Amino acid sequence: MTEKHGGSDLRANITVARPVGRRGPGETYLVNGHKWFASVPMADCFLTVAQTEGGVSCLFIPRRRADGSLNGITVKRLKDKLGNRANASSEIEYHDAEAVLVGEEGRGVRTILLSAEYTRLDFAVGSAGLMRAALSQALHHNDHRTAFGAPLAQLPIQAPVLADLVLEWAGAAHLGFRVARAEDAHDDVSERLVSRLLTPVAKFWNCRRVAGVTEEVIQSIGGNAYIEEHDCPRYYREAPLNAIWEGTSNMMVMDVGRVLAREPKAVEPVIDEIRPAADEHPLLAAALAEIEELVADPEDTARYLVTRIALATQAALLVREAPTVVAEAFIASRLGGGWGPGYGTLRGLDFPAIIDYGRLG
């Protein structure tokens, strides 16, 4: 999708596709142009977007032409990335590459995003998984390392940090798998709306939070976690990619705005799911009331609105699925006051019980 001058604005792309004969879905086109990011360049086929007479369109490009010869795809170079090194990313050029039009001309962005929706879900769930992997490293180290006569996990200065990380992972995991459940029930109208709204919300929030979690885990372990033979450096390099791939944070916020503008009812099943928990927790009730007010004008609230939807949904899911001590700690910290920009500022909570939930996770 991405081109050097277009970036996230796919309609600014200049790669072109011209029909060999007839125009329309399923017909053969020749594609010419350059793509700045093409991941998995060894794949057997690609979905790409290109300009046609009808506008930006989606095309299926196989590695080989119908006669068995290699298609007109040239890998110019591999990207030297910060992380994600085992997954090759490249710059490619199309030179009369044979392609088949997928969907109608001019509907390419919407068509290719049908595929991207699953990838966004993958990154939301994957970010929760990356948090889990990092958290497991932190818990193991802090349970087995002693200082001042006690395991690190029991120290008053460290227990709030570990508990905070557990809450972050718990909220992310429940949010990611709630979206996955909605995808599995896509034939249900209500669940389809949940998926349409919460996919970009979960992709935005989980992917934004995972980098901070991995960094805090490194600090909770110390110098050993900064050594390349430890797992944490790889987690740390991998984390920022999740927020970039298949749409940056701003793109996710814009997508939520588009959903609310085109399908205002998409927020209703999400609100209905939050409301039972909100009836029992005043802080969550206040957050829900604020969301209902903000959705009327999403353009002016942008990231704040998406953040509140993410936190309120996570809180409601934890009330329903997690131990009471975990749900109440999440609500008190994420929706109440006094939760700092970093981790470990929790006060007056049952830290051992929250940490135990993380150990069992």
From TrEMBL:
SUPFAM superfamilies associated with the record: Acyl-CoA dehydrogenase C-terminal domain-like (SSF47203), Acyl-CoA dehydrogenase NM domain-like (SSF56645)
Gene3D superfamilies in the cross-refs: 2.40.110.20, Butyryl-CoA Dehydrogenase, subunit A, domain 3 (1.20.140.10)
Pfam families: Acyl-CoA_dh_1, Acyl-CoA_dh_M
Record's keyword annotation contains Oxidoreductase: yes
Domain Acyl-CoA oxidase/dehydrogenase middle: 1-96
Span of domain Acyl-CoA dehydrogenase/oxidase C-terminal: 106-260
Family: Belongs to the acyl-CoA dehydrogenase family.
Protein's name in the database: Acyl-CoA dehydrogenase family protein
Organism: Actinomycetospora rhizophila
Lineage, broadest ranks: Bacteria, Bacillati, Actinomycetota, Actinomycetes, Pseudonocardiales
